[in-house]
Amino acid sequence: MKIGFIGLGNMGAPMAKNLAAAGHEVAGFDTAGVSVAGVTQAAAMEDAVRGCEVVVTMLPNGAIVRTVHAAIIAAADPETLIIDCSTIDVESARAAHEAAGEKGLMSLDAPVSGGTGGAAAGTLTFMVGGSEAAFAKGRPLFDIMGAKAVHCGEAGAGQAAKICNNMILGISMIGVCEAFHLADTLGLDRKAMFDVASTSSGSCWSLNTYCPAPGVGPESPADHGYKPGFAAELMLKDLDLSQTAAEKNGAATELGRHARDVYKAFVEAGGKGKDFSAILEKLSAG
Ligand code: NAD
User: Fold this and answer.
1) Quick check: CB of 5 below 6 Å from ligand 1?
2) Measuring from atom 1 of ligand 1, which residue has the nearest CA?
3) Residue 122 near ligand 1, beta carbon < 6 Å
4) For 52-87, how does the pLDDT look when each residue is reduced to its tens digit (9 = 90+)?
5) pTM (2 decimals)?
6) pLDDT digits (tens, 9 = 90+) for 208-249
7) What is the three-class DSSP state of 43?
8) 17, 162, 274, 282: which is the annotated catalytic residue?
9) Is the CB of residue 191 less than 8 Å from the CB of residue 214?
């Protein structure tokens, strides 16, 4: 397939590289002038888009996606499928679908989980919104860039699934960090707390797989000085998106709001660039 790839940052570069390594003809464009092994570097975005069967975007936020998609739609062939893998607000995702639909182009919102490690290894999970036909066309590419693709529903459903999942993650990570902190203050050994809670009703991904306390669970960013992993500022971005969506749609998400406020304070107080599990370090420091 001839594929255009717009946004070759920490996530986009390895994803584009994997598509090229699988034998596809990939043209890439990034405003920062990034070059990626196996990917033809286009001088202008339009050059990366023209004549492509699929255009993938991996960009920082909804405003940028709206602008970039308008330019892609203007330059793309009529049969092109546009797949946006960025994590953005549901409204912008729906607007991007609408703009593509007005020109008769197929589109998908397909945010990912799995981080930069998953992008490099081609083991991302894609949460996908859009028509059945668009999903069927995009599927072979999801199979290269990821290990799993779930068709969640119509336009915007992928973004909705992503922010709901990450709201659970933000809340549960704070819960696990607070439990370790309480255990410390009670003189309970962290290893004992892990051994009990990870095999009891407190078990969850934040504790069992990504333990925020160093040395007591499987290897995690806590064992490497909280080098991300998943940076606290990215968690804040996702909690801002879930909270904005909750407020717009009248959903009561008290703990989601609280989790957003905790990460906002953490990022502003020097947590930027640290893994999102470093909340425990902050609690321990007092
Ligand atoms: P990044 O900042 O490393 O990459 C974004 C890239 O987009 C940059 O290289 C930037 O130069 C480029 N860009 C910005 N405006 C552009 C434009 N108008 N035209 C072309 N290129 C442009 O970010 P990232 O970590 O790769 O994340 C990308 C998206 O994936 C974000 O929406 C993020 O929330 C999401 N995400 C990231 C992770 C992660 O662990 N990094 C995990 C899951 C989802």
Assistant:
1) no
2) 9
3) no
4) 999 999 999 999 999 999 999 999 999 999 999 999
5) 0.95
6) 999 999 999 999 999 999 999 899 999 999 999 999 999 999
7) coil
8) 162
9) no
